[in-house]
């Protein structure tokens, strides 16, 4: 909304500069977007401010509204002329009802419709003062009749439209819905096909205006026009907004209807325009007006509590100060109720003042936002405590990252083929029980993932394609499956993937591929981090795993995941390196098994004594079984057992494998001598031989 300062001074007396007025309005909630100097046709210059009017301040999309604001802010009076009485004195002798009838078929959408007939006018150029007013705010002069409707629109904020009466068929104007496929050409030349959701102004046979938006080309005022119907109305704001958006037609009128117009201003703005047309274009105004106002709007009032206002604003405004602020905004304030509550009458110009908080905002901005005391909030801040699950996730993430793994985050949606391959990761559900999306983004993302492996594999593929020689990645995320009763389940899972060759360094063999034991070491570290013992079990039937090099995992006798190599079929299908080792753990189950209370032991005062044991054993025997037997035989002196070598090959007889363990013995009250350790070590050897058929390697 552009405001010419000289024009504004006709309604309120002020001597502020453009900069001072702009600052004043900005601090009151009417931001100034631009300030410019416009040169008029005679070379004179005038100051113009452009206001950014928010949707809740539609009453400032006109000079009267801005003038009220300025008058209230500087404590001056607003000079609004009254043209109703003057209009009645200017009426002719012939009644308007003889030549015009209005049929409002949509009273819920057309709240009020008023029509005046002016005859024997002479459209022509507008006088200089009118052209200058419009030019200053960026409007083009058309002719004196059209210019007057635009002038009054900017003055009152009330859209008007003048129809060429001779172009209207019949003597009746009808407010109705559009017809399906009804043709309509607007003044700006847009050819539209209307629908039944459109609201139109029509004569006996055709639509002549898109209500509240734009008039039609078939009834516009031209130089040959002699008789006009001057329309002034109030239309439903939602209907106007939807129609404007749907048909791609936007105008100064639609902008104002969208934000709500003063329903009482319908007749006063019409009177102003009719008198100006009579003055500048001549003609006779027929006696009376057609004013269809089916449901007059009642006077609204809102209660305002003084205590609530001061509480919200954090100040202590007096009753007199509050009443003064409201009165300066043209709000009628009644006597206090119980010395506490105002009863504020809301004028029709402010339709959005409906709540107590709205009135509090009005007082705040008129009193000055800068006068509100700045105070720090008084609140107790409690420390944020992590849940056991959150702490466990952070610990495992930190551990794996420190071991050289990179964390990835992948989509929860996969394709049906991937879901089929990895369905058995944590569930025995059949393919038909996969959880599918009703409205997937694409066919490749139509199934909720039953495992994190599909995403990890795709991440590994991208890394290998970029020239990476090795990949060590992990992910925390949720997987989705069917329960025993067919119900949908969601679990948090941690999964890791390693493949490729070791980086060259001084302690690792050049070109050595990552294998089962590399990832098993990482898995053991995860178990120690959580203070849980993960037990290896014979692998279940998971088609995507190599059964001979895979194990199931349990905790507290409950299945919790698996560890091993991907099957050759999966490796070939995804064109992965030969050895791809993975593990997946049901993290929710691990969290459930966490020790309830941490137990601490004092640091040992005496050194450890070490022994190595290398055995030949059947391939079917797992390392976990061996460790269990060693711990049973080792007794209280045995403190630690670690597998550090696994060998299978030509030098080992068929069906056998070589396992080498490091044993650590320690006492809490003395340094152990060989005479104490050797018997325990011999007992371990005998136990492994007798119970597992192991043979000691020399």
What's the number of helices?
20
The unreliable regions are none
**Structural class determined from secondary elements:** alpha+beta
Number of strands: 32
Rg value: 43 Å
Distance between the termini: 97 Å
Report the major sheet: 7 strands, mixed
CATH class category of the largest domain: Alpha Beta
> The CATH topology of the largest domain is what?
Phenylalanyl-tRNA Synthetase, Chain B, domain 3
Strand content: 25-35%
Q: What is the typical, i.e. mean, pLDDT?
A: 89
Which CATH-level-2 architecture of the largest domain? 3-Layer(bba) Sandwich
Q: Give the full name of the CATH homologous superfamily of the largest domain.
A: Phenylalanyl-trna Synthetase, Chain B, domain 3
Strand order, biggest sheet?
Answer: 20-23-24-28-27-26-25
Global shape: elongated
- What's the number of structural domains? 5
Helix content: 25-40%
Structure notes:
- The protein is of the alpha+beta class and 698 residues long.
- The chain is elongated and about 130 Å long.
């Amino acid at each position: 909304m552009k405001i010419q300062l000289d024009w504004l001074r006709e309604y309120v007396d002020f001597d502020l500069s453009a900069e001072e007025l702009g600052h004043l309005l900005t601090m009151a909630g009417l931001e100034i977007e631009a300030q410019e100097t416009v040169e008029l046709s005679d070379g004179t210059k005038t100051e113009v401010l452009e206001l950014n009017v928010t949707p809740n301040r539609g009453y400032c999309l006109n000079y009267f509204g801005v003038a009220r604001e300025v008058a209230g802010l500087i404590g001056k009076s607003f000079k609004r002329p009254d043209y109703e009485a003057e209009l009645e004195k200017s009426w002719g002798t012939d009644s308007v009802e003889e030549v015009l009838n209005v049929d409002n078929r949509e009273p819920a959408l057309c709240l009020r419709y008023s029509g005046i007939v002016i005859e024997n006018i002479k459209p022509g150029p507008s006088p200089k003062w009118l052209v200058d007013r419009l030019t200053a705010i960026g409007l083009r002069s058309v002719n004196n009749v059209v210019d007057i409707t635009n002038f009054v629109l900017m003055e009152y904020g009330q859209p008007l439209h003048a129809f060429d009466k001779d172009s209207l068929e019949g003597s009746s104007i009808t407010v109705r819905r559009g017809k399906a496929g009804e043709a309509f050409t607007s003044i700006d030349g847009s050819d539209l096909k209307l629908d039944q959701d459109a609201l139109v102004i029509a004569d006996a046979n055709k639509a002549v205006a898109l209500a509240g938006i734009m008039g039609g080309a078939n009834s516009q005022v031209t130089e040959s026009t002699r008789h006009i119907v001057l329309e002034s109305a109030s239309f439903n704001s939602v209907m106007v907004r939807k129609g404007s958006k749907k048909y791609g037609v936007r105008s100064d009128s639609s902008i104002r209807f969208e934000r709500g117009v003063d329903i009482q201003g319908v007749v006063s703005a019409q009177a102003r325009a009719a008198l100006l047309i009579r003055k500048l274009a001549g003609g006779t105004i027929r006696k009376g007006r057609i004013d269809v106002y089916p449901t007059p709007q009642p006077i609204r009032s809102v209660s305002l509590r003084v205590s609530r206002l001061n509480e919200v604003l954090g100040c202590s405004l007096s009753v007199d100060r509050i009443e003064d602020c409201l009165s300066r905004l043209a709000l009628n304030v009644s006597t206090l109720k119980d010395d506490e509550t105002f009863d504020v009458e809301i004028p029709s110009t402010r339709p959005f003042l409906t709540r107590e908080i709205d009135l509090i905002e009005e007082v705040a901005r008129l009193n000055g936002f800068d006068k509100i005391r700045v105070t720090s909030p008084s609140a107790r801040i409690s420390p944020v405590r992590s849940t056991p699950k959150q702490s466990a996730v952070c610990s495992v993430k930190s551990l794996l990252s420190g071991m050289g793994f990179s964390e990835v985050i992948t989509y929860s949606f996969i394709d049906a083929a991937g879901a089929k391959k990895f369905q058995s990761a944590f569930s025995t559900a059949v393919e038909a029980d996969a959880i599918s999306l009703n409205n997937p983004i694409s066919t490749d993302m139509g199934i909720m993932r039953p495992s994190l492996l599909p995403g990890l594999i795709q991440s590994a593929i991208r890394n290998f394609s970029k020239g990476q020689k090795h990949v060590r990645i992990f992910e925390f995320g949720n997987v989705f499956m069917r329960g025993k009763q067919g119900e949908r389940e969601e679990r948090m899972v941690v999964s890791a993937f390693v493949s490729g060759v070791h980086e060259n360094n001084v302690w690792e063999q050049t070109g050595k591929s990552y294998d089962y034991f590399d990832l098993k070491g990482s898995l053991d570290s995860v178990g120690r981090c959580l203070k849980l013992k993960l037990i290896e079990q014979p692998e279940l039937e998971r088609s995507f795993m190599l059964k001979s090099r895979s194990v199931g995992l349990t905790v507290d006798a409950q299945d919790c995941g698996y560890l091993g190599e991907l099957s050759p079929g999966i490796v070939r299908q995804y064109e992965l390196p030969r050895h791809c080792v993975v593990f997946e753990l049901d993290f929710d189950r691990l969290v459930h098994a966490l020790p309830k209370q941490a137990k601490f032991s004092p640091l040992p005062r005496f050194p450890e004594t070490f022994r190595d044991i290398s055995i030949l054993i059947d391939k079917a025997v797992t390392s976990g079984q061996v460790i269990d037997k060693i711990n049973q035989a080792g007794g209280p002196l045995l403190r630690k057992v670690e597998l550090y070598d696994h060998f299978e090959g030509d030098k080992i007889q068929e069906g056998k494998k070589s396992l080498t363990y490091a044993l650590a013995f320690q006492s809490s009250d003395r340094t152990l001598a060989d005479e104490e350790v050797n018997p325990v070590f011999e007992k371990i050897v005998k136990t492994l031989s007798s119970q597992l058929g192991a043979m000691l390697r020399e």
